[in-house]
Design brief:
By secondary structure, the protein is of the alpha+beta class. It is built from 15 helices and 6 strands. Helix 5 packs antiparallel against helix 9, helix 5 runs antiparallel to helix 12 and helix 11 crosses helix 12. The chain binds a DNA duplex (13 and 12 nucleotides) through helix 6, helix 12 and helix 13.
Length: 284
DNA sequence: ATGCAGGGACGAT
DNA sequence: ATCGTCCCTGCA
């Protein structure tokens, strides 16, 4: 990938914005688990250089959504003055298009916990049940396939630190394996219908569904509302006044819908900038 | 020490 | 619609 193509894009900020969990920095290089391959990028004077193990064509463009028309998306989001400012401050932040199965498993593990815990769970799963990949002389592990995941027992999942999330992970694995849940098809389905399908899976609620839709199923209008986004909406827009700290399903959908209306077709981009902004100064 | 929060969702009232 | 509970860990 020629650096010039990606001069205005910063994978480091994108990863640090909390949308993907399995990335780690080694010296000046970053390595990430992306489904069945390991991604790498490194900083150089001219920008960033990417590679993947094994070598796979187009995976960088795919993962970092380099085909998105960022200018037009930015222009649209800039109708909101706060977002316009954030776009300037954190200009290199982009949404990613993660491996959909990995993304779904990841966010199922993310409920009611924190980022370090999520990383621990997922890295443990990868190490135990993923494929070993050597990159730059170091050992990495791919994310286990749905088939591999479906063969893990609940006690084994709990041994990975999943706790009560083990049942949800099993339900997801079962759904994908049985064909009940067809993630590839959901990429081509509209937002509302795709969300309905995801919500059928045990352990997947509205917030997780929106994360998966936004971060892996190309639904840029998805607007996941976690505790931080809720705070942002309360602080900067006063939208949460009548709501408490916790949102009911009804309130979640109501709020998510008004966010979609306010921020436009690519509301999910605005969400990611808001999330990153709210998390400044925090160290996971 | 004990409590509590941390990218929620489920099940019983 | 509200409320307790779920597993686990770090931190105050």
């Amino acid at each position: 990938m020629r650096p010039s193509l990606v001069h205005d894009f910063d994978p480091e900020i994108s990863i640090n914005s909390g949308q993907a969990f399995l990335w780690q920095q080694v010296d000046r290089n970053w390595y990430g688990v992306h489904g069945d391959c390991i991604m790498k990028f490194s900083k150089s004077k001219d920008g960033f250089e990417f590679s993947s193990f094994p070598e796979r064509k187009g995976v960088v463009r795919d993962l970092f959504r380099l085909d998105d028309d960022v200018d037009s998306i930015s222009a649209e989001m800039s109708r909101d003055p706060l977002i316009a400012g954030l776009l300037k401050t954190y200009g290199g932040l982009r949404l990613m298009r993660q491996d959909s199965a990995q993304c779904l498993f990841s966010f199922v593990c993310a409920s009611n916990t924190n980022i370090p815990m999520i990383r621990r769970m997922l890295y443990t799963l990868a190490k135990k049940y993923g494929q070993k990949v050597t990159a730059d002389g170091m050992e990495f592990h791919t994310f286990p396939s749905a088939e591999a995941m479906s063969k893990i027992s609940e006690p084994e999942l709990r041994a990975c630190g999943l706790g009560y999330r083990a049942k949800a992970v099993m339900a997801v694995a079962q759904g994908i394996e049985s064909g009940t849940l067809d993630l590839a098809m959901l990429k081509k389905t509209g937002y509302a219908d795709a969300k309905q399908e995801l919500l059928k899976i045990y352990g997947v609620g509205p917030k997780l569904a929106d994360c998966v839709l936004l971060f892996s199923l190309d639904k840029l209008e998805a607007f996941p509302i976690d505790i931080w986004i809720a705070r942002a909406l309360a602080t900067h827009y006063g939208w949460l006044g009548k709501f408490g700290e916790k949102l009911t399903t009804r309130q979640y959908e109501e709020l998510s819908e008004s966010a979609r209306k306010h921020f436009g077709r690519h509301a999910g981009y605005a969400q990611q900038y808001l999330y990153y902004h709210m998390r400044q100064g925090k160290k996971w």
